[in-house]
Amino acid sequence: MAFLLLFSLHSNAQQFLTGKVFKKNSAEALVSVSIHNISAQRYDLSEENGSYRIQVVPGDHVSFSSVGYMADTVTVTAAMLTGDFPVYLDVRAQTLKAVRVGEFSNYQLDSMDRRKEYAWVYDHGNTPRMEHERKGDGVGVTLNIFRNASAKEKQRERLEKRLAKEEEEYYIDSRYNKDLVTKITRLKGDSLQQFMTKYRPSFDYCRRAANVDILVYINDSYKQYVKGD
């Protein structure tokens, strides 16, 4: 009974920093931002709506970081724990202007950066493996998943699956983007968005397709779009 009472008191003493992460000067919520309680070595990711929750005590230093954004670190105060604490991340200035740097595309470089950003989720001590033998312009980084049965690893597995799915979406975006679709279809605004949503190719197709195949796919899809199919 005494043990249960002590456990209950300890649980009740837990405090959490909560809120949402946004793009600076915008209402856009940021997904899968890495939240790191540096003081306690705890980690978490922001959810699909940008919300986050991480255990803290006043005085802890908590860092918010995401590929493509400037990291921000805050020192937790008691006042920050009385309600939601919004975080705003500033976009990092692009330094890569070329489509390719050395042998890697910008997408592959970003993919490696994401792999480093989420190293705490993936297997520790392993470096990203570049997938050179691939069709088309396949995924730049292979995200290997290793399992064990602990509760922490089950949570890690859930986060890995989520990040792997997001990596697929990033890859599709790198092959099927607004600039390319606009150049071929001349669509803009809502029409462009509707077209891109309706005819968004699958990850498997994008992995198999060469660049010219993507161009033909967009052109053929546009013909169907004009016909109202």
Describe this structure in words.
The protein is 39% helix and 19% strand. About 15% of the residues have low confidence. The N and C termini lie far apart (69 Å). The protein has 229 residues and is of the alpha+beta class. A hairpin with a 2-residue loop joins strand 8 and strand 9. The protein has a four-stranded antiparallel β-sheet with strand order 3-2-5-6, with no helix packed on it. The protein has a three-stranded mixed β-sheet with strand order 4-1-7, with no helix packed on it.
List the helices and strands and how they pair.
Blueprint: H1 2-13, E1 15-23, E2 34-37, E3 42-45, E4 51-56, E5 61-65, E6 72-75, E7 87-89, E8 100-101, E9 104-105, H2 106-117, E10 129-130, E11 141-142, H3 151-175, H4 178-185, H5 189-198, H6 203-208, H7 211-227
Parallel strand pairs: 1-7
Antiparallel strand pairs: 1-4, 2-3, 2-5, 5-6, 8-9, 10-11
